[in-house]
Amino acid sequence: MQARKFGLLASLYVSQGLPFGFFTQALPVVMREQHFSLQWIGLGNLLALPWALKWAWAPWVDRVYSVRWGRRRSWLVPLQLLGVLSAIGLASLPLQHALLGLVIGCLLTSAIAATQDVATDGLAVELLEPSERAWGNGVQVGGYRLGMIIGGGGLLVAFERWGWSWAQLTMALSLLLLSVPILRHVEGAAPTEASVALPTWSFLRRPGVWRWLLVLAAYKTGDAFATGMLRPFLVDSGLSLSKIGVLVGTVGSLASLFGAWLGGRVTRVLGVRTSLALFGALTSVCLLGYLTAASLGVGPTRFTWYVLVAAEHVVSSMATVALFTEMMSHCRVGAEGGDYTLQASVVVVCTGLAAALSGFSAARLGYPLHFLLGALAALAGAALALLGTQRHSQVRPAP
């Protein structure tokens, strides 16, 4: 039963990571190769705007559904199929002469994936027992990263070799196959609390919630700010698309998979509060590694860069698992999707703004100082997590 839960959730999170990986990992590389400025590449992160705004329609995803199809399947099945159709539509665009269509297509794909995420997060909170949440969030982060391996690394190589249309059709076929588990899933009855009006904004009236929202705002911002310019830096260092796809899209994402597993294991042992502080501090150390390599002029094809990228991705995934585990403990019964989405939106807005501004920082200060600012911000986030997370929220090992 537990394996079926985790398999279902993994398929849904891979579905999110696949298109997001392509648009966030591949497009910045393609744009830099086409001589776009760092400022424009940084602003390209704003295409993920639906992920920041999904809290606005998340309550509808919690409350509006077909009893016959199930509370979550009513949304997940149509959204999976819409994702397939969106990828097919993008495949029909002539990339070189359809910039406006590409932007609209990216926004539409982001909106579909963001709404699917609301329903999936609600399903995860409902399915997972408290003792399963650390492992469940490891599956969540790992599945998402696996999608990014396919979308960010594999499809980048496919794009370079076979072109835009075949890359998008490959994405469409992958999404279709990933829809099989949710099509076969039999959903239980919705909890009676689901019919009670639980406005998302009432979440903000809970004791201590603003302190927790401050942690959410700061915790991942330094990492997003620093790594927002990692791919352009590698392009400026002379790396080819395929090598960047291997280094960041494949090596980095595989390291993230390991980090997701390790993060779930360590969080169960240490508890959420200690894990958040430890993983945040380690993130700062990894970003200082980028600073050192950039300052010394270490070539990006050398073994040193592979170690740095792998280490940063491992630690970043561990931090994400701990953060998501704590977010679940703040969700109310009957408003799981809305409450989790509101918290996730705070993270997305702050990390998105940091990534959007990263190009201005790197262009003005240079890559070494840019990485230093990111490391300091990550350390500040770790300190806030230690002070702003309640001790009672720790997850203890199952007996």
Strands, helices and their partners?
Elements: H1 2-33, H2 38-43, H3 49-53, H4 58-63, H5 73-91, H6 99-127, H7 133-162, H8 164-178, H9 180-184, H10 209-219, H11 221-227, H12 230-236, H13 241-270, H14 272-296, H15 303-328, H16 336-365, H17 367-388
Helix pairs in contact: 1-6, 1-7, 1-8, 1-12, 1-13, 5-6, 5-8, 6-16, 7-8, 7-13, 7-15, 10-16, 10-17, 11-16, 11-17, 13-14, 13-15, 14-15, 14-17, 16-17
**Could you give the order of the helices and strands?**
HHHHHHHHHHHHHHHHH
What summary fits the major beta sheet?
A: none
Taking pLDDT < 50 over at least 5 consecutive residues as the criterion, the unreliable ranges are 193-197, 391-399
β-sheet strand percentage? under 5%
The whole-number mean of residue pLDDT values reads 82
Distance between the termini: 19 Å
Q: Kindly state the percentage of residues in helix.
A: over 70%
The rough form would be described as globular
Report the radius of gyration as a whole number of Å. 20 Å
Oligomeric state of the chains in view? single chain
Give the beta-strand count: 0
Number of helices: 17
| SSE-based structural type | mainly alpha
